Structure formats: C-alpha cells, structure tokens
Amino acid sequence: MGVQFDQPLALLLFIPAAVFIYWTIWSAQRLTGFRKAAAVVIRSLIVILLIMVTAGMRPYAEYEHRDIVFVSDRSASMQAGTALGEWIVSALETKDPADRAAVVSYGLQAMVERTLSAEPASTFPFRAAVNDSFSHAASGLQLGASLLQGGGRLILLSDGEDNVGDLLKQGKRLAEQGIIVDVVTYPAAERMDAAVDSLTVPASLKLGEKFTLEITVQSTISGEAELRLYEDNREKAVETVVLERGENRFALQSVATEPGIHRYRAEINAAEDEQAANNAAYAFSRVDGPPKVLIVEGQSGSSANITQALKASLIPYELILPEQLPAELADYAGYDSIILHNVPATRIAGGPMKHLETAVRDYGIGLMMLGGEDSYGLGGYFKTPVERALPVHMELQGRRQLPSLALILVIDKSGSMQGGNMELAKEAALRTVELMRDQDTVGVVAFDGSPWWVIEPVKLTERDAVNNAIQGIQADGGTEIYPAVSTALNRMLDVEAERKHIILLTDGQSAGNSGYQKLTNTMVEEQITMSTVAVGDGSDTALLSRLAEQAKGRYYFTNDQSTIPAIFSREAVMMSRTYIVENRFTPVLGSAGGWRYLFEGGVPAVDAYVATTAKDTAESVLVTPMGDPLLARWQFGSGRSVAWTSDAQGKWAGDWTQWPEFPEVLVQWVKWTFPQFTSDPYQISAQQSGQDTMLEFQATGASDSTIPSISSVITDELGSRLVVEPLPAGGGSYTATLPAAAPGVYMAQIREHTEDTVAGSPDDDDKAQEFESAVTTGFVVPYSPEYKLTPEDGIARLKQLAELTGGRVLAADRPEEAFGIPAESSREWLDISRLLLLASLILWLLDIAVRRLSLPWDRIGAWFALLFRRQGRLAREGPAAGTDVLARLQNSKSRSVRLPGRTEEHGRTTEAQRDTVRQQSGLHKTAQAGMPNPNPEPKSEPKSKLKPEFKPEPKPKRDSTADEPSADDKSGSSTMNRLLAAKKRGRP
User: Is CATH 3.40.50.880 the right assignment for the domain spanning 293-395+579-672?
Assistant: First the structure.
C-alpha cells in the first residue's frame, strides 16, 4: 500500500493552514472547556481533509498482472469462423487469476465483444453484428487500444487482407503510445470461387460502330462456366467458357446501335462457385449519334402528322404504345425527346411514369404532350409525375362556373384487396377528393360481404374528416357487389347535384349476379352514371363491363394496380366535361420569346382544346380568349417540356394540321426540348473508401480561375436519386462522397452554375430551374475489394506490424503463448476524494453544531473523557476488567431513579431545574462527585476533598428534614431563578 499526491505542491497549503488553526484557537475565546477543544479539532480536520483533496491524495496497492485485448478479424475473407473464438478461449485458460482480457471484433467497423475483465470464459461466441463486406483492421486496433488502461498489449487475429484504412500507419501510432501488437496469422483460405475482375468497354462510341468488350475473370475453379453479357439490363450475349485456375480473359464483339448512355454488366456462373458477391462487373459507354425522338401514341396510327414532320427534318424517331414504355431508366437515355400524343395516364405504369419525370428533370431529356380527349386532366394526369414535369396544372383554378357534382365511391375491401391494392384504392379516393370543390358532394361505401358507409355523402367543407375516414379502410372479408351498389344508388337519389356519378372498384367476383338490370335502369332514369374498375384477372370483367355500359359510364380493366389513382382522377375530371372547351377562336400571342418568329405570318384558328392552368414560371406562348394556355413551355430541372392543349390529328385543330407551316413549327417545338449539353464534358472516377464511394469530377480544360460551381444529381439503376454538391479540389477537379453505394452503374447529371444563375432545388417541381450548362455521364461502383481473388500479401503485412510495435508472431496452434509474457507491475488506485469531501461536509455540520447549539458541552466532554478512560483501562486490564466494569454499570442502572423536572411546555429540562431536582432528591452531591458542575456554588467544605472518579453510592435515606431546603440551597435557587427570569425576558 502507498499514497500518491497528484498535486504535491498543494501540500504547501499546510503553512497557511497552521496559521488558520492558530487563529481559530485565538478567536474561540467565548468557548471554554470541551466545547472549545472540539471546535478547534473539528475545524483543523476540515482544513486537513480539504488540503488532501486539493493535493489529489490517492492510496494504491501494487500487484502484478497482464492486460491483453484480442482483436479478431471477422470479414468475409476470414474462413476461421468459430476457430477464432476457440483460440481465444484456449488462451484465456492459461492466464493467471489477476490477468485481464478483452475482445474486439471488426469488419467495416469495430465492436467490443468483451470488456477488460479477469473473468474466465469456457466458450466465446461472437455476438456483435459487423459488416463483413470490408476489413478495417486499423479501426479494430484503435478500439482495442482504448480498452487498455496504462499498459498492456494487443493480439491481432487476421489474414492481413484489410481493405479500409492504413494498418501500418495505425501500428506506428500504437508504437508511439508504447502498445505492443502480437499477431496470429491465418492464411487466406482458398475457396471455390470465380470472380469477374473487370469489364472494359470504350468510353465513347459512334452510332453503328463495332467495339469489343473485354472481360477478365479470376478463378480457383477449373472447368466450364456460363458467361453472360447485359446491355441496359437486356441480355445481349451468352457463352459457355472454360475456366482455368488463375486469370482468364474473354472478348465479346458488339455494335453500337442506339445513341445515348448504355450500361453493361458481365456475369460469370460456375456450378462450384461458393461466392456470388463477386460474380459481376460493370461498365458504361456513351454512343454519339443524331438526336432521336420517342413518340408514344394513345391510339395506333394516330400520329401521322407528327411522323411526317420528323421525317421531313431527317430526325429519327421510334413509335410505341404506352404499355411499351421502357421499364428501365437507362433506356430513356437513348432519346433526346419524348412525345406523349393523346395518351391517358391510366395506360402508363407507375415505373415508367416516374422515369419520365426523372429523365426530364435529371438528364435533360425533352418532353412534349399533345392534347386530345385522353390527355391532361381528362387523361388522369392530376398529381402524377408527368404533371410535375409539364408547364401546366391539370386542375382548373377558380375561373369557371362548373356544374355541381355528386360522387360516391364504392370500393371493394375484401381480403383479396389487402396490401398494395387497398393502399392504391385509398390513394385514388384521396386524389379524387382533392380534385373536387367544396360545394361538391362525396361519399364512400366500402364492402366485403355487406356494405358500410366509410363516409356518408357530405359537402367537402370538411376535407380532413373525409380524408381521415378514407385512410381508415381496412381490407378483410368476402365480396358481395350488389348490396353495395344498391346502397350507393339509394343514397344518391336523395342527393341534390347537377351531375351524379358512381365509381365501382373491385378485384373479385360477387356470389350473386342477378338484379343488376333494375339498378342500372334506375340510374338511367335518374340521370346517374356509373363507371367500373376491374383489378386483375380474378375480377368479374363481364359483369363490370356490362354494368358500365348499362349505366352510361366507362369500364376500365387493369393488371397494374399503380394505374388505379389515375383512373379515379380521370373519372373525376370526366364528370364535368367542362375541361373540353369547344369554341372556335384564334389564339393570342403571349410570352412567345424565341418562338415569336414562328407566328409572324399569323396564327390559325382552333376549334377545341383541353383546359389547363399555366404554372407560375411557365411561358404561355399562345393563349385562348379565356386565358387558358394553348401552347406553353418551361425549364424543368435539366430538361425542357412543352404543352400543346389542342390535338395534332385535326379533329380540334384542323386549320393547324392543314397549315403549310405546321410541320416546321412542330419540329421547332420538338428541337427546343432537346438536351442542352455543354461541349466540355466531365469525367467521373469512383474510388471506394469503406462503405462509401469517393467521387472525383474532372472538368476538361478547366483551370482554377475559371472553375464554375457545380451540383450533380446521381441516379442508380432503380431510379433512386441523390443530389450532391461537389467541392473544388484544384486543377479543375471536384470531390464528393456517395454514401453506402451498391455495386453497379450510376448516371450523373452535372449542372454548372455561375454567378448569374442560381441552382434551383431539384425537388421544387413547380418552379423553373436554370443552369449555365449541364452534362450527363456515368460512373461505376465495383463490388467490395473484400471479395477480390487477387489479394495482396497480408501475412507479410502482419509480420511487419508486429516488428514495428515490438510484438510477436504467434502460431495459430499455440494459444497458450498469448499470456506467456512477463507480468507487469501495476498500481490499483483508490479514489477517496468523494469520501474526504463527505467527511468534510459532516465535520462542517458538527462545527456549526458545536458553535451554535446550546448543549451541556462540559458534561458531554466529561462523558467522552470517561469513555476514553474506560477504554484505556479495558485495554490495560483485559477482558476480566471489562466484565467487572459491565457488572458495576448494570448494578448502577438498577439502582437509578427516574428524575422529575421534565418541562412539558418546552419539551426539555433546564440545568437549573435539574439542580433543584438533585437537591430535593438528595442526589446533588452524587452528581457533583461524578462530573464537573458548570455552575459551582460556594460550600463550607472544600471541593478538593471530593474524589474525581464516579462511584455508585447508596441511595440516601429520606428524613423529615429533607423537604426543607438549606440556606445554601435557597441562595443557589434564588440566583438560578433570577437568571431564568432574565433569560425569559430576553426572548421575543
């Protein structure tokens, strides 16, 4: 045992402390006897304790032990598995009881499996969840070092194939801290594996150019395997190849047939392959060629006017139906502009609908919508991604007197609607409610085996209540259509509205199919229409089609549940029919901008169009007499879009289609939407840093003086997007971090901003966003280097680490060597600062009590003195004396009498009262003999004759004279009474 002071100079405080103690003795003049001594001692102890706390007094005990932290590699390349835990347990069995051990495991991140402890372990399962796709040994060593307390060493169990951080640099830091690292080497186990190491394609190609794709495969397998090549997720080639152990090279020939950016993926599949994470490699290439237009027509053969105009201008095009829109985002990169010609939203699946928006906003691809009866609001585009990309809103905003509407939605809530169908049905109902006005009436009937009102027909003044009721629909039960339709019809008969409509949605079949004719006849008589929506092949399509026909409504069938909201929106708009404005007029030139020259010779008349509302930042080039946009354009993100609200077939705009200038005018609209790319593209390189990917953007021909500010929108193969703000790094380069990126090809749309242009938010869909220039390119994120079959020499690196820190290279079959090192002498410190402070606090309270409380301190002191004397006598005389004293004390207790004189009013006995009682009871002399009297009285007999020791005396005999106080007693009593009276007069 020993004591150490962290701040030894603080012990000099004892010098002023001595002065303080002397002053305490001098200033305590009003205190006497034991009270004074107690006050001085207590204050001295307080000062001493506080000085000890200030000096940082710490007692310690010295002992010998070993502290070891085991750092275990749990990345995917380690094949040891449970053997690591068994090695650690075997090592722990050889330690001394005082030795302590901790365990840290790591993959990408390090985790503590066991804190530093002397407890043994019979088994050791690893429980921490680590990302085994990477190996970050440096983080494991750093965490292990933090667990050591004043010495110790680390034991690293690994194959040395770390791919994150710098292991040797971390070793240097540990060596500077005096921490030794031993290593247990595990050679990387050879597994049956075939890995695509690289895929190489030319970065830039010309349309029609032949090129070679070079594929490198590393393999530990000898035998046949299947090599597949994909272009934009479409299988392009399949070959059976023969693999040899080691490096294998293959070459496939292809032709660039489509312009744009294309993604390539090479995959190897071998029967004996044990690791699938490294079976694919990725690449991309840009194919340059003339601009190409994709025409999506709602009715086959209806786009003749468009195709003839593009042919005359030698612009290549592709003509498809809505259902043929590409499902992959990368496929849209092959087009410069996309035309939606009278296409209803109900025929565009959810994926392509989102891709159209992304293609315009993020990759600068143009978009044009040409009108007709299935376009804009009539086509169900309200609240869709396409509406966000267009320069017009689908709803009419407060300029027309629309007829009052009443709509009842009859929604199947049977068990078959659970999941996506039910959620999309609710979204469709909510979207329909949003389209309607406050004066309109809406009701919702949900049905399974029987109908029930979700919300009875009400005016839409309380939209929140209606929306909350719709959100609460839950799917369960069977399907019975007739009662639900009958309930909706009967209630609709009581509703007052100019137009009444019912929408029935179901994915099943009703048990009974009779009696519907009577319902539909009533609907026709009461001018109530009903449309039906059949979801999936399990629905009763024949019944629903017949009901819609009989009730003068429309029938929809869909296998794509994502189109349900668009169907409901279309129906809500179709109810009014005021969206189609049929009135011959001549358009008025609005904000024509650069298109003004197109209409210098005049503008043909128009017979009809679909009413829309121009967005705030859109340019209304041609305007109708009612103020509606006929031709509008705007910038949306990186791309441009155009809206023509009349048709292109000639039914509504016959004068336009017959106008000789129309083909050229139409082509100029299309060309305006083409991507506006800069001539100086950027190159992006990607380098993995753990789970994140570090991106470097290199601008061609840029210098630090001319470098612009850029932003980038990055999109993966699934269409997920992320906006990054690269930071300048000098020399025309920028850097950014892409967090947690999965392997694959990523497309990046890079936007340049100068001081005159401000970057708009990519998610601000209703505002135009301007950029100085933009370019679309791509980059590849490979699979983790943890799965590569061309590792570095990890064993040599581990040995170098051990040498760097002065450690040992331990054998994997000799765990007993772990604790085979000399023990270190350590001190176990005891922090008593809190105890000293607590003792100081208690003594401070005692100091206040001694100085402030009016207690019989001299008698208390006498009792303390008596106690100490008895303790000393017991120590000298041994156990027999102690027994004798105890017997005398018990004897004295049995002879004692209860003293009267307890003051009831104040709950305490005064000294004067006690003296009086002693005199009256004949015990006064006994008290004087036992202890000092604080108020001595003059006696005729000298006090020196009294013995100082207390000895029990026989109980005095009472006689007749005992009741009469003596003269001395009277005198003392009189004096005491006067003092008590004075004290009472001094009280308030």
Answer: yes
